[in-house]
Amino acid sequence: MSPSPTGYADNGGVRIAFDDLGGTGGEPLLLVQGASVTRFWWPPGLVDELIARGFHVASYDNRDAGQSTHFPAAAARPVTALFRRRPPAYTGEDVTDDATAVMDAMGWDSAHLFGHSNGGLNAQRIAIRHPKRVRSLATSAAVSSDAGRAKLLWYIRFGSVARMARLRFPETREGDIAMSLAISRALASPGFPFDEAEALSRIEKDDVCPVRDDSTMGRQLGAHWSGGRLADLRVPAVVLQGDSDQLLRTSAARDLARAIPGAKLVITPGVGHDLPRGIWGRYADEIRAVADAVRVR
Q1: Which residues of the chain have pLDDT under 70?
Q2: Which domains does the chain have, with CATH numbers?
């Protein structure tokens, strides 16, 4: 089946690019991607697994990423942005409303959510702010929305962050691809083979390297949240985490699972801060199981 043309949702003048990835007639599942990277970084093989389990899948570019609206706000370093008192460009609440705008554009009154990395953080907040729009919640490689500054400092592996920040490549098409590939390698799961061809098939869909601009990531990570707490959630949830995550300690996932009432915690050996081929089926099964829990509540 040919992919659907890119759609655009509107949230107060902010355009959010999204794709209908297939599975029409299945249960709505919205994929929420992490900071800087685009919707193209979702592995198509994982999407196929989700469709095979009865989901109608859509993904979108966060504001300030890919083909969505970018903001010409002041520069903000990614790590320091986490601790600024004022958001550089927009709030966490604005970001959650982007997701519901995509649901509206898809014709969905509600959806299951799966968020990876900072997308997992945003998925938590979407569920808190829009409880009637979210059926179930799955996160991977994510920190808790409740985490304060001290906890964030403990969760983040700053050595890995610093090493990736030192990567330098020419500002050319070839340099963009090489930089994205280097980041993908740095975050790849040590317990699974790195599939360079699969990574390149996604990376080459981007017009420019999405991880080159620190200011973009800084604005996204600096979208401060003043909404509710995870204890307010009343949806089935599963927290997925690799024990070899290069950016986050496993305590981040343990604390997140404890904070969400009734959440299941799944820690997979050998998985880093990515979604390797070897776990696509397992993760799809977990997302299907948490979605099925909605039916028996």
Answers
A1: 1-4, 73-88, 296-297
A2: 7-295 (3.40.50.1820)
Parallel, antiparallel or unpaired: strands 7-11 and 14-22: antiparallel
What pLDDT is attached to residue 83? 56
User: Could you give the CA distance from residue 200 to residue 45 in angstroms, rounded to a whole number?
Assistant: 14
Task: Supply the pTM of this predicted model.
Answer: 0.93
Q: How far apart are CA 81 and CA 223, in angstroms?
A: 8
d(CA 245, CA 181): 17
Whether residue 153 contacts residue 251, with contact meaning beta carbons closer than 8 Å, is answered with no
- Give the separation between CA 49 and CA 281, rounded to whole angstroms: 6
Give pLDDT, residue 36.
86
Q: Report CA-CA distances (Å) from 230 to 122, 227, 249, 260, 284.
A: 12, 10, 20, 5, 23
Q: How many Cα atoms within 13 Å fall on the side-chain side of residue 23?
A: 24
What's residue 2's pLDDT?
A: 46
Nearest to 118 by CA among 218, 10, 260: 218
Q: Cα separation of 153 and 14, whole Å? A: 32
On the 0-12 / 13-18 / 19+ scale of CB atoms within 10 A, 90 is buried
